[in-house]
Amino acid sequence: MTNHSVDEFGLISRFFGNVGAFDESSFDSPVIPLGIGDDCAILRTPPGHEICLSIDTLVSGVHFPESITPYHLGYRCLAVSLSDLAAMGATPVAFTLALTLPESDPKWLSDFSQGLSELANEYQIKLIGGDTTKGPLTISIQVHGLVPAGQAIKRSGAQPGDLICVSGSLGDAGAALGFLELESTPDATTENSRHFLERYFRPQPKIALGCFLRGHATAAIDISDGLLADFSHIAKRSGVGGLLYENNIPRSVALLSEMEGQSLSLALTAGDDYELCFCMPEACYEKLKNEALFDSVSVVGVVSSECGLKMKYEDGSERVLSPKGYTHF
Ligand code: ADP
Ligand code: MG
Q: In the sheet that 126-134 helps form, which strands lie side by side, from edge to edge?
């Protein structure tokens, strides 16, 4: 902003001056020598590490319903950004926040900041800077994560014969979209709708799993636009294809009971789950499958040398799939 009012600076220090913390005790010099308050923040890369950066912008009415509570908005914005670090195997360190607000409402800001803080504290990351402007509600968060040099998990390493794996269950956040107009917060009435809304409003970035996969997974991506669309990104970057098994696509009890007929298409093409999809050689999977972090991991298919996606159905038939997912334009 060019015309800084006292209110603007007051607002920043009151609601954003102390969000989150980063534990620097395991590094021999500070990783964040300078946070909020100067023209720039400063990050110092510990020896032998690289910084992974990702930015996500969420626009009101496009990426979240206008009725979302500010608490859930703060939580969700940071969660979806952290999910990109999880997909690279990076440990989150810090983030910056560009906030465009139609008005400065202290109650709204306090609740938004609380949603941010809850997740920032959980993952031990610090808000180190940002920008505040007036306009239609839009939030951009850039996250900064550390990864041992050369060990970030890219989309480009999948090899034919690798297993295609997925964490958690898919389709629940997509199912929530059917309930958003009726109930805009997780205080929904039935257990199943509460479950779907919780998955939509409070996605859990899979940071621990992503870090664990370093040195094991050949490729990884977070599932923001649906399994088919997101696996297709891995396939394209790696120059491979994939065969998925219908029976193995992980779906929650809530999804199967509430949305029986649509559960497969929701699990394959609905976005917003923020689970991880990754590839690894079968021998590697066999070694890791009994680890606690693999409790929620399913093998959903196998990487093939020919491009394109196919599905093997319960009756043994195979069909070509189109990589339908959420596209913005
Ligand atoms: P400048 O005009 O030099 O960019 P600003 O007035 O935009 O400075 O910001 C002042 C300080 O407050 C900077 O350190 C900036 O990073 C921080 N800041 C501004 N808005 C936010 C925000 N929404 N969240 C966190 N820090 C912010
Ligand atoms: Mg600025």
A: 49-59, 138-148, 91-101, 126-134
